[in-house]
Design brief:
heterodimer, A: alpha/beta, FAD/NAD(P)-binding domain, eight-stranded mixed sheet, 14 helices, 22 strands, about 25% helix, B: mainly alpha, two-stranded antiparallel ribbon, 8 helices
Chain lengths: ~575, ~240
């Protein structure tokens, strides 16, 4: 028999950035809050300390910080006429787990989305006409505007100590920041990161070609910083072990370094780790959530009643939690009825390996997760798509996050895959090669979605999430265009060899591309095509809020975390100023 | 901060405007690795015949040359044995629920075998193929071994249930891992692979160097097992 616990005001399912910030905001306003985290408790000391944390095999190759795939995998297929099979190990993307969630092992690349992205459909149809957009695409507006989110972007940037230079300060353009960004009310709390050698070469070439290079905004500290919560962080030392690792320096913004200790000082907050939530329970009307059921590490089942339930897990687990709980109608790609799992999107990543001469010592292992010089000239709608026949774009980033050798040892095309010539090529090119990273947007499409797998189950006997995805043709055309532009810059840098590698179909889960999954519980103003309203509140069960990148109607080319941060504070505000005063639908 | 005295002297050194000078061991020296107390030695996971195949195969995948030792000298067989004897080899880090069925290439590894089982089955099948011919893989010349490895890589020869291209990918993946991983895992002996490419290893603090563009930086690489932990000052973070 499950043990029924004493009712609390709020339960957060997942304690990463979303769970810890929402819990802090609500607990500070006097509510009793329980955070249920399926993974382990972990802290900068002792869990992230060097040199043990600088273990490429354990953390990067064997994925020690990621969701326990043994117990809970996902299945995948490219098309719905195929049989989905489990991803038996994480390769293509890396869902986090444990206290702090993916906020522990992210890189800290801290991008705002542009104003036009929140009205993506309206904007593109106005500029290019409805027929310009491929018929399989399902782009839509967010239901919330950039102007509404700006103060919350600001709040999150100051929480995480973002380092950068404003490109557009209240409409005033600054050429050393991002020329294309939407207006911000304040300067970044910290200056930009140091520029790597490859980035400096890239900057020069990009300027010569008439582009607008700048240093990527970062949540790796650029100087000692104390945030508004009173948490102090150290400067980043460019150790080259950032993404997939925890930070030993207290230099990368993570829930651990920016908010968790302050949250845990509040006696009305309780953290329960290794608490695996099975489902949200509804009352007999199906319109009110009453509790969540979870298993602890000893296999005991508990029922935790709560009046407000916040789904704050990794995006794919947000989708699955709603499906397992019967909240919202599952999406059917044939009839296009239903919404949960709809508009699953990804990131259209491509690369340009740039082989410089042996006299150019790039020292790419001197790197931070968010270091790099970048141009935004080919993102979103920053260029005229009219003659090009596709929508969207991507930024072009030159800068390494690391040069860890098991996974970074580039060789030029034509090099044998193994043997003496391979070895000689690895030796020759290791310190003289950089790889441009092109982060392309991912356009939601009718055929791409997530639902529950009919065959494969997790360790608790529940169906795994099934992902059906391939790149829409639009995004393949976009990638071809932007990647060719990047290759021109590489040649301008004086590279000996440039490899143009646009993204092509089919999507594969066997090589890492990006962890930026989005969609599935998208937000909007129309319940026929969204799961939550503009305040991230479930249309069907108003005392359930879902806060994650699962709310994005399509994926931007920009990294998703900063927009998630803005949505977290936006939702916290709606809860505190409106919902708690009068619980019920906010829209 | 880490090792304050070294950091300060490095900072002073840079302030003086001099270029970093190599302190790396010479390759000739490096090719005679001293026994490091941090290198674990494998228990006997593989049979003598299995180990012999692995030795002769990885010796071709990353051969030694006049300057740098190869996978064999770096202890990659030792690395693979240790990995296969541990949780990874036992399949304790992968999702292993059935049904098992062949998928598309985009769906990744779908065999029911653990990494350890995959190695055993494939290598024994190969050894049996050669036994029927009255020889062994390791008796072949270097060129013949390369040809046979290429055949494994490019064809789908049935190795007791394992298609040979899958086995080859697996062998290659583990060879690269063992060559480049931290020496605590039993390969990359004397950090020879890191020295070859100039990777500084696990002790890394480049605040002062990252924007010294074009500096030729050489340092004896340091592994996780090499010395005392460097400690970082803890800022005011409250409890937790």
């Amino acid at each position: 028999m499950p043990q029924k616990l004493k009712e609390v005001d709020v339960v957060c399912i997942g304690v990463g950035f979303a769970g810890s910030i929402l819990a802090k905001e609500l607990a500070a306003s006097g509510l009793t809050v329980v955070g249920l985290e399926r993974g382990r408790e972990r802290h900068s000391v002792p869990d992230f300390q060097a040199p043990a944390i600088h273990d490429e095999l354990k953390y990067s190759v064997r994925k020690a910080f990621m969701q326990d795939v043994v117990r809970e995998a996902m299945t995948f297929r490219n098309h719905r006429n195929e049989v989905a099979l489990p991803m038996r190990q994480w390769e293509g993307f890396l869902p986090g787990t444990g206290l702090g969630g993916a906020g522990v092992h992210w890189n800290g690349q801290s991008w705002r989305y542009q104003a036009t992205e929140f009205i993506y459909k309206t904007h593109l149809e106005q500029r290019y006409g409805r027929k310009f957009i491929d018929p399989d695409l399902r782009i839509q507006d967010w239901g919330v505007s950039y102007q509404e989110l700006e103060p919350y972007y600001d709040k999150f940037e100051y929480l995480i100590g973002a380092g950068g230079k404003a490109g557009n300060l209240n409409g005033q353009i600054h050429s050393d920041g991002n020329f294309f960004e939407s207006p911000r009310a304040r300067e970044y709390p910290n200056p930009p990161m140091k520029e790597q050698y490859a980035g400096a070469l890239f900057r020069k070439a990009a300027l010569e070609l008439g582009y607008h290079p700048f240093i990527q905004p970062s949540a790796n500290m650029t100087r000692p910083y104390t945030n508004p919560e009173g948490m102090t962080l150290n400067p980043c030392v460019y150790c080259g072990f950032c993404e997939r690792f925890g930070c030993e320096q207290f230099a990368k913004a993570s829930p651990q370094t920016v908010i968790l200790p302050k949250l845990r000082e509040l006696s009305n907050f309780q953290l329960r780790t290794e608490a695996h939530v099975l489902r949200i329970n509804l009352d007999s009307t199906g319109k009110k959530a009453t509790s969540v059921s979870y298993m602890d590490a000893q296999g005991r089942e508990f029922e935790q009643p709560a009046s407000l339930i916040l789904v704050t897990a990794f995006i794919l687990n947000n989708i699955r939690m709603l499906l397992l709980s019967g909240i919202g109608r599952p999406y059917d790609p044939v009839t296009e009825k239903g919404v949960v799992g709809r508009n699953y999107a990804y990131q259209t990543q491509s690369y340009v390996p740039v082989f410089m001469g042996e006299d150019v010592h790039l020292n790419s292992y001197m790197a931070a997760g968010a270091s790099g010089t970048v141009i935004d000239d080919f993102s979103v709608d920053n260029f005229d798509h009219g003659p090009l026949g596709f929508i969207g774009g991507g930024y072009i980033l030159c800068g390494s996050t690391n040069a860890r050798p098991i996974e970074f040892h580039p060789t030029p095309p034509g090099t044998p895959r193994w043997g003496g010539k391979w070895k000689e090529a690895v030796r020759r090119h290791y310190n003289h090669t950089t790889i441009f990273n092109l982060s392309g947007n991912s356009t939601s499409a009718r055929q791409n979605y997530a639902d529950l797998d009919p065959t494969y189950r997790d360790a608790w006997g529940l169906p795994l999430l099934r992902i059906t995805f391939d790149f829409p043709d639009n995004d393949v055309r976009m990638s071809r265009h932007v990647t060719a532009k990047a290759s021109e810059i590489a040649r301008r840098m004086g590279a000996k060899i440039v490899v143009n590698e646009p993204r092509t179909k089919p999507y594969t889960t066997t090589a890492y591309q990006s962890t930026h999954n989005t969609g599935g519980t998208v937000m909007g103003n129309d319940p026929a095509i969204s799961v939550v309203n503009r305040y991230c509140q479930s249309w069907d069960v108003p005392n359930v809020f879902v806060v994650g990148a699962s709310n994005y109607p399509q994926n931007s080319s920009y990294n998703p975390t900063l927009t998630l941060g803005a949505l977290i504070y936006w939702t916290a505000d709606a809860l505190k100023t409106r919902y708690l005063k009068r619980p019920g639908p906010l829209a | 901060m880490s090792d304050g005295s070294k950091l300060n002297s490095r900072r002073d050194f840079l302030k003086s405007g001099l270029i970093m000078i190599s302190t790396a061991a010479l390759p000739a020296e490096a090719s005679r690795p001293p026994q490091s107390h941090t290198t674990p030695e494998a228990t006997h996971y593989f049979s003598e015949a299995e180990r012999k195949f692995l030795q002769s195969a990885i010796d071709r995948l990353i051969p030694s040359d006049e300057r740098w030792p190869g996978a064999l000298e770096a202890g990659v067989v030792n690395y693979i044995e240790l990995q296969m004897a541990g949780p990874w080899g036992r399949g304790e880090l992968v999702y292993r629920h059935g049904p098992f069925r062949k998928g598309s290439k985009t769906q990744g590894y779908q065999l029911e075998y653990t990494p350890g089982e995959l190695f055993h089955r494939s290598i024994n099948a190969i050894n049996n193929i050669f036994m029927e011919r009255g020889t062994t893989f390791s008796e072949l010349s270097a060129a013949e071994r390369d040809d046979y490895l290429t055949k494994l890589e490019t064809e789908e020869i049935d190795l007791d249930g394992v298609p040979s291209n899958i086995f080859f990918d697996f062998l290659w993946k583990h060879t690269v891992e063992g060559f480049f991983a931290d020496p605590i895992y039993g390969g990359n002996r004397d950090k020879i692979a890191w020295k070859m490419i100039g990777f500084p290893g696990a002790y890394t603090d480049f605040y002062d160097l990252v924007d010294k563009h074009g500096v030729e930086y050489h340092r004896e690489p340091a592994g996780i097992g090499d010395g005392p932990m460097h400690m970082h000052s803890k800022p005011n973070q409250g409890k937790g």
